[in-house]
Amino acid sequence: GAVVSQHPSRVICKSGTSVKIECRSLDFQATTMFWYRQFPKQSLMLMATSNEGSKATYEQGVEKDKFLINHASLTLSTLTVTSAHPEDSSFYICSARVIRTGTPYGEQYFGPGTRLTVT
Amino acid sequence: AQKITQTQPGMFVQEKEAVTLDCTYDTSDPSYGLFWYKQPSSGEMIFLIYQGSYDQQNATEGRYSLNFQKARKSANLVISASQLGDSAMYFCAMREGLSGANSKLTFGKGITLSVRP
């Protein structure tokens, strides 16, 4: 299967600072990238959907000014948590989708996640 | 209404035995896909199996099979010959309107599976 990487895997930052998380599709060009947030022992909640060169589409309740998404190329998307607060501490997972011949549903691959702790 | 329902709070199975993880879904879209993912404690999401709404046969992938009952809107995952490494959180997910590149994957709450030696 295809590989999606995330960097960093773990980050601790102080309240009020900003943190950038990178998501890369290593061996394929992603049609679409998604950002999820997951609290301990809970499900993945979709935060936003992004396409290369376009503005991200945010889910209801997600602050677009707080969670800045940039999708600079077909292989790179970044999520910046601005002015982070302790309640932003969570596990952030990116996912990349590619539509290939023979897979009409599109294959979606997940990154390993980034654990953010805001102190 | 929830689109994906996983009500089993936690499951235990003896090593080498089979286990069924339940999933029901709700959609009015005739074109949809059902997915199962495994999430071990490391956090990575591992794709296990896919079932399309138009697929005539139940999907199988190695030790994983999907018991797809369209009329009941259920898509239960069956793991045969459980292994200790199967201990993880399992998520059922659905994508409606498969042809849309931006169509969303909606996840259930997940089920924790513990395999006993």
Helix content of chain B: under 10%
Query: Can you give the helix content of chain A as a percent range?
Result: under 10%
State the order of secondary-structure elements of chain B, H for helix, E for strand.
EEEEEEEEEEEE
Please count the beta strands of chain A (DSSP E, at least 2 residues each). Answer: 11
**Extended strand count of chain B:** 12
Low-pLDDT regions of chain B: none
Distance between the termini of chain A: 37 Å
Please give the most extensive interface between any two protein chains, plus how many residues each contributes: A-B, 27 and 24 residues
Structure class of chain B: mainly beta
What would the average pLDDT of chain B be, to the nearest integer? 93
Task: Please give the count of helices of chain A.
Answer: 0
Order of helices and strands of chain A: EEEEEEEEEEE
Q: Please give the oligomerization state of what you see.
A: heterodimer
Using the alpha-carbon principal axes, give the shape of chain B. Answer: globular
**Cα distance, first to last residue of chain B?**
38 Å
Biggest sheet statistics of chain A: 7 strands, mixed
Radius of gyration of chain B: 14 Å
Q: Give the DSSP E fraction of chain A (strand runs of 2 or more residues).
A: over 45%
